[in-house]
Amino acid sequence: MQLFYVPAITTATLHLPEEEARHAIQVLRKRTGDVLDIVDGRGGWFQATITAIDKRSCAIRVEQTRQEAYRAPSRLVMAVSPTKNNERFEWFLEKATEIGVDEIIPLQCARTERPRIRANRYEKVLVSAMKQSLQAWLPRLHPLTPFSAAVAATTAGAQKYLGWCDESVNTPLIHNYQLASDVCIFIGPEGDFTAAEVDLATTAGFQAVTLGPNRLRTETAALTATQMIAFLNQLKK
Fold this sequence. Notes:
The chain is α/β, with parallel strands linked by helices. The protein has two domains: about 5-65, CATH 2.40.240.20; about 75-235, 3-Layer(aba) Sandwich (Alpha/beta knot). The chain is built from seven helices and twelve strands. The protein has helices at about 20-25, 85-100, 120-130, 145-150, 175, 195-205, 220-235; strands at about 5, 15, 35-40, 45-55, 60-65, 75-80, 105-110, 140, 145, 160-165, 185, 205-210. The strands form two sheets. Strands 6, 7, 8, 9, 10, 11 and 12 form a seven-stranded parallel beta sheet that branches. Strands 1-3-4-5-2 form a five-stranded mixed beta sheet. The longest helix has 19 residues, at about 220-235.
């Protein structure tokens, strides 16, 4: 199945976004009368027929719709410090979307090595991964958020964890997470969180956890945590 992404479908007749139209016409060689499978990123599945095409546009008519129930009984929010190497952070975005994540917060810590993010590029990575993994829910990407603001904005009632590399931390995330509960996990930069950041987070109710005995890169740690939560919740089903 080849999926196309069209956000906020509100009418039965419309045009594909320019990039999706170009892919349909120039890459996949779609023609008038062909049927497309479309998702809207909010759980909506659509089948639509191409009614007209030209070099840059593709008109469609929606024939069938289906709303998918939300995919999990709980929400996973990953707050991750962007890596200096942008490709490594994009790799995390792609793989986390494929596995299943609800929100991603690029986390600006004291030791974060990337002061700006490429939000438009990141959104494209998320959309591509959603379509590739045949999902209808697009993770929400937050703007680059200062550490203190991210701590303050954590959803009330959610489990809150801080992936901290300090040798004193001996609580494994995999043994501490309560199944089917909302959870927010913070993963810091290569230089780890500062003592002040750890104090701020723990005062706000975060629990410092370990992801295992090995020292992991930021993007590896973030993906490991994502996979742990997804795997544990799958076991519950």
